[in-house]
Amino acid sequence: MTPACPTPHHDEETLLLGHGAGGRLTAELLDDVVLPALGAPPDGVLEDAALLPGDSQLVLSTDGFVVDPLVFPGGDIGSLAVHGTVNDLAMRGARPVALALAAIAEEGLPLAELRAALQSAGKAARAADVPVITGDTKVVGRGAADRLFLTTTGVGRRIPGLEPSAARARTGDQILVSGPIGLHGTAVLSTREGFGFETTIASDTRPLHRLVAALAPFGPDVHALRDPTRGGVAAVLNEIARDAMVGVEIEEGALPVPPEVAAACDLLGLDPLVVANEGCFVAFVAQRSAEAALEALRRLPEGRQAAWIGAVVDASPGGVTLRTLVGSRRIVDMPLGEQLPRIC
């Protein structure tokens, strides 16, 4: 009897947590699966929000939030969902006009937790002066979701004179960050894993549209804005360097990393540059306006710790380098995936 030849085995590609983490795996998923399926043009610049067809002053963004735990020092999934979409609109130079909110809740979730999350979202929306005008609620079976997922969609109107885009960065631009980095990711991780850092570290989640509005007087000189959420500062600098085909160089000694965040990252083996943030943005501003723009940010309470961190240079277009404290340089790569999954 002739033995049967076994059927060839083919490994099936599957999703990894890293595919949703904002780094290289996310870019691959978008390029290979998401964008082709939706008919998006190849090699287009991916922004935090999109201009509506036929009206370049209206901006649209949508985002899903799957943070674990639902409540963390400084915020919760409700406030995070509002702030995240308001901030994505702001990164295109827009003030929020209205929000939609959709909730997917797992059977068995205590109603008190759902109520608290939605009340927090409502409070955050009122504080940002943006109404939640529509939405949806779904309940799925036990085990079909991790307690609660929120999705927010926002419409915004551009502030006159502001037209930032990741592709507009230019040689000579100065790079500003509107506040300390690393707070959100370390706060969420500490709460999730019980490390105890939450006694000194709280998330920076907050709306950023008022800070962006403070840059309106420098309109044409504000070339690019991006909030460093998943993948952190390293990811957004690499995205802008790639989309504008410019070289980016930052100074290690200028990075506004709070001492408690630096200590936590040292202990856990994390790089603050790739830790998620929810209450700051990176701005690429023409050199002639950079100092005045920095002072404008610092005049607002949420921007008082704004800092200069580097510049756009002629060397290494498409790449990011960091000048270390001892004067050497190292490459800052696009993160492969998120060191801290389920962070926003």
For the record, give the distance between the C-alpha atoms at the N and C termini, rounded to a whole number: 59 Å
- Rg estimate, integer Å: 21 Å
Major sheet:
7 strands, mixed
Number of helices: 8
Work out the number of β strands.
14
Classify the secondary structure makeup into a structural class.
Answer: alpha+beta
User: Average pLDDT, to the nearest integer?
Assistant: 92
Strand content: 15-25%
The low-pLDDT segments are: none
Helix percentage range: 25-40%
Q: Provide the spatial order of strands within the biggest beta sheet.
A: 9-11-8-12-10-13-14
Shape: globular
Order of helices and strands: HEEEEHEHEEEHHEHEHEHEEE
What would the keywords be for this entry?
single chain, 344 residues, alpha+beta, 7-stranded mixed beta sheet, 5-stranded mixed beta sheet, 8 helices
Summarize the structure in words:
Helix 2 runs parallel beside helix 3 (111-127). This protein has a 7-stranded mixed beta sheet. Strands 1-2-7-5-6 form a 5-stranded mixed beta sheet. The radius of gyration is 21 Å and the shape is globular. By secondary structure, the protein is of the alpha+beta class. It contains 8 helices and 14 strands. 46% of the residues are buried. It has helices at residues 24-38, 77-90, 111-127, 183-193, 209-213, 232-244, 259-268, 287-298, and strands at 50-52, 55-65, 71-72, 75-76, 94-106, 132-140, 148-158, 174-177, 222-226, 247-251, 282-285, 307-313, 320-323, 329-331.
